[in-house]
Q: What sequence folds into this?
């Protein structure tokens, strides 16, 4: 669509010199990756052209517009929408939602800056990642929209909250390298050093989003404390998607629900609910209708196995769930649903017991049964979970957590 094919940022292994990996001195490897990062930064290679959306076939454009009329539907087919928009689903969808909520007008967003921001966000996702690409970001944004419309949220959220929720969803995996944090740490990737091995990916997604906000000056007309507040809150939302911290968020959520003390009149409580909504949106694939859910499952497993192949090739320890010889799509999915997805959605349903929530739980149960039918031996330990989706007290195994941190 007229973009430079060159990428900046976090290639999983372009920034790693595998020859020096097993030696004691990794200083050169780090320097190399920093230099590459600097050389490929957008500042040095100029500004890409704005997206020529007019090249779309008029018929496709009409069908895409038609789909947007049902953007609040849980059956929304983001894969079809992405094809109809010629791979521009994230730009189209986010722009449409910001406009539909009246946020462009309310916050006096400059259309040229906004368009440029969204195109840059979409471009900074890696198309070559089977899963962590702009279509996943668009899917999470669409799910976030569905949750924002739920009565409890719709009645209490401010326009500022909605703006943050949508922006966080659209940028939450920005510049994802297609490998997980343990991989970045064990290959001495510059991102692991930069963020001291802590929420490495999430910190990078956040800082990349802030970089694009500043580069496009999207909020430069707002008082400086407001734009700093947007940046800070965006960080707090994106960092909440770190699945290795899921128990922390989940027990806080559970305590609030047990004590029935969530007061959405308080900004801090609304922010916490937004964090939980984004977490749900991020891992809601197993709660979608089977035809959509299945495609996501295949894509995420492909990404895991690709990482496993790189690890095998470079004689690194193969990460859990990444060995294509030891795992199947079904076994990976059943574990993920049981230990990560079900506990989260069990609490979400307690918070917002609506038709949408019941629909999501229904799909979750059916999808798990479908995977179990495809792989009877993998479902042995999870059969009871099937009839009891909310095994909320169960401790996620490290296996499942490790997968979750990749999937988020
Ligand atoms: Zn994600």
A:
């Amino acid at each position: 669509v007229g973009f430079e094919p060159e990428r900046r940022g976090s290639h999983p292994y372009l920034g790693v010199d595998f020859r020096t990996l097993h030696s004691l001195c990794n200083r050169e490897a780090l320097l190399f990756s920093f230099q590459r990062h600097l050389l490929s930064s957008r500042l040095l290679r100029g500004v890409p052209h704005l997206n020529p959306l007019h090249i779309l076939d008029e018929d496709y454009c009409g069908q895409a517009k038609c789909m947007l009329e049902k953007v609040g539907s849980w059956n929304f087919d983001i894969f079809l929408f992405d094809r109809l928009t010629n791979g521009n689903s994230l730009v189209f969808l986010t722009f449409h939602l910001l406009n539909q909520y009246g946020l462009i007008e309310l916050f006096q967003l400059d259309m040229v800056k906004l368009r440029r921001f969204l195109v840059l966000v979409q471009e900074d996702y890696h198309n070559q990642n089977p899963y962590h690409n702009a279509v996943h970001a668009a899917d999470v944004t669409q799910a976030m929209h569905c949750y924002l419309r739920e009565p409890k949220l719709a009645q209490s959220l401010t326009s500022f909250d909605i703006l943050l929720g949508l922006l966080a969803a659209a940028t939450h995996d920005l510049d994802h390298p297609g490998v997980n944090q343990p991989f970045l740490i064990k290959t001495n990737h510059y991102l692991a050093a930069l963020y001291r091995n802590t929420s490495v990916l999430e910190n990078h997604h956040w800082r990349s989003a802030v970089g694009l906000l500043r580069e496009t000056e999207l909020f430069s007309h707002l008082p400086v404390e407001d734009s700093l507040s947007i940046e800070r809150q965006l960080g707090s939302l994106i960092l909440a998607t770190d699945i290795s911290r899921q128990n922390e968020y989940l027990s806080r959520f559970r305590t609030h629900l047990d004590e029935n003390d969530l007061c959405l009149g308080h900004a801090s409580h609304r922010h916490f609910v937004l964090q939980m909504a984004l977490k749900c949106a991020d891992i809601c694939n197993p709660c979608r209708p089977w035809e959509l859910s299945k495609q996501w499952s295949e894509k995420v497993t492909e990404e895991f196995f690709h990482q496993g192949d790189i690890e095998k090739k470079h004689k690194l320890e193969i990460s859990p769930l990444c060995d294509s010889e030891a795992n199947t799509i079904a076994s990976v999915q059943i574990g993920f649903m049981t230990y990560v997805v079900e506990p989260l959605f069990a609490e979400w349903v307690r918070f917002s017991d609506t038709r949408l929530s019941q629909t999501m739980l229904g799909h979750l149960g059916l999808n798990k049964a479908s995977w179990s039918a495809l792989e009877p031996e993998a479902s042995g330990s999870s059969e009871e979970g099937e009839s009891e989706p909310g095994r909320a007290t169960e401790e996620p195994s490290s296996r499942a957590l490790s997968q979750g941190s990749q999937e988020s």
In short: Confidence is low (pLDDT under 50) at residues 1-7, 24-53, 380-407. The pocket of zinc ion is lined by residues 136, 140, 172-173, 282, 408 (CB under 6 Å).
